[in-house]
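User: Predict the structure for this protein chain, please.
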Amino acid sequence: MKNFLFYTFLLLCTSSVCAQVPVLNVQDTLGNNHLLSNIIDTNKNHLIVFWGSWSFNSKKLLDEWQPYSQNWIDHYNMEILCISAYYDTSQIQLAKDLWHDRGWIGKLFFANTNDMTNIGIEAVPWTLLITPEDSTIYTHIGYVSGDVIETNQFIVENLPLGIIDQTKSNEIIKITHYNNIIKIESPNNLKGCTLDIYTIDGKRIFTCNIENNTTEYEVPESIILNSRGLYVIRVNQDSSSKSSLIYLH
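Assistant: Here is the predicted structure, written as structure tokens:
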């Protein structure tokens, strides 16, 4: 059955369906209806997963995406859309409860299973990666534990790295690196900020909450001692965040 669905998708890719966002009605968490194409930001990549609240493999996918999701969003100009299939309204509430309880990352929407079947999606989970050029460059049908490694590898190898500074021109947090010292600076108190350091493939090697009243924080030398390569530093402060790419020699 899985092979049949895979070849069905390949056939779809020879038509205009694969070259554009699927024509699909979706519902947001407030009950408002939208065309999927109308909620797509044409300046971003979109990782879209169709999943089901009853599906063990769907829940396994979203659990195992969790350590990677924020890195994809921050560093690969990505939006993650998680479209929960339903055949009656009880699945909508179940999906909302799961989403709240497990803290999955992304934007939650809902789609009727009949509408999904009409565009060729007959099983969940079903993953698509769509570029700003409106082209589907990756698809994955089903899920077994560890498949996220393949997805992450494809993203890392095929999408340009783009660090998004969410503070834009009103920079609040400054990250500097010199002589093997990484310093976080802010005109405001850094207490309560969360600091994460990731390798370029999304593995988190350090995380902490800044506990002291200070406007400057230095990453402990033991974290970066003998480290080499590219790293991403992300600092969250209230509603603002700052990401920066550094190279340790």
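DSSP finds six helices and 14 strands in the chain.
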